[in-house]
Amino acid sequence: MKGVYMGIILALLVFGFLVFFHELGHFLLAKKNGIAVTEFSIGMGPRLCSFVKGETRYSLKALPFGGSCQMLGEDGESSDEHAFNNRSVWARISVVIAGPVFNFILAFLMALIVIGYAGYDKPMIIGVMEGYPAQEAGIMEGDVITRINNKKVTIYRDVQFYMAVNAGQPLSISVNRNGEKLTFDIIPKQDENGNYYMGIYSSAVRTQAKGLEVLKYSLYEVQYQMSVVVKSIGMLFNGTVSVNDLSGPVGIVDMVDTVVEESTSEEVDIKTNVISVLLNVINFSIMLSANLGVMNLLPIPALDGGRLVFLIIEAVRGKPVDREKEGMVHFVGLMLLMVLMVYVMFNDIRRLF
Fold this sequence. Notes:
It is a single chain. By secondary structure, the chain is of the alpha+beta class. The protein folds into 2 domains: about 1-120 and about 210-353, no CATH class; about 120-205, Pdz3 Domain (Roll). About 55% of the residues lie in helices and about 20% in strands. It contains 9 helices and 10 strands. It has helices at about 1-30, 90-120, 135, 155-165, 210-235, 250-265, 270-295, 305-315, 325-350; strands at about 35-55, 55-70, 125-130, 145-150, 150, 170-175, 180-185, 190, 195, 200. It has a 4-stranded antiparallel β-sheet with strand order 5-4-6-7. Helix 1 runs antiparallel to helix 2, helix 2 packs across helix 5 and helix 6 (about 250-265) packs antiparallel against helix 7.
């Protein structure tokens, strides 16, 4: 029970911080472009506490999901020169896109911590399974995978994710063997459970990054997480995964709780346990922050991406879409998102029990 409480507390802190950083992007670019921010809030629903400084009310709200940066005249007409819709279209585009961009920046900063301290998962093979295609093709222990079906491989998770998305497909595996470049053609073998394997082992020990490698692999970590989100969305549309596989706040709390549980051990001291928990929570937060950034850029009404669509149309046409019609589209989108959120939350709770 103690671990559950810690998981809930950490999940709320992670949610709050990711949302804060996202809304901070909108806030700072709004201020820079002379747009009046009426309220900056973390959470949704009724206010728990708030204070006013200048033109802005800063609020903490009851429901620990989401947040907002409300700007003057954002969803309607206003004669005030500091209203959102009275600034240039490019100024408004910069404000809207700043939230997702700040999430990618945050993911990179957190990746610097994880990669700098714990290193990266090098795509090195530490062994091959007897009787599986990798051994039969000639792949050996010590080989470093560099490409899979001509797709560059930087970390071992590239291989794992490619195998998951392209299960059973023939593979062209390029490796570096002591400076020599070799390529092997492999057809994965299906086991009795229907899973496909090449038959290779990878080390669970991460490789320490040195110097500029920390920057390189931190950037790649963010790129990897973004690509996973994009490809997962594609799998949702082509039917490979279903809406039932999505996780919402409740599911994420459960995942954070699992991260905490798996990161602690009675065999090591408290300091080591604390460092392990923090590193794994930060690593999990990288994925969440990249996920939040990509999802908000989707061209869905009520999300940042939906607003960007209308702004791009305005930039091309030279005049805005009717504000009332745009507002109605965003309202409908918001209602549909709320329905989806409730559905996903119900599935999360059902999976827990």
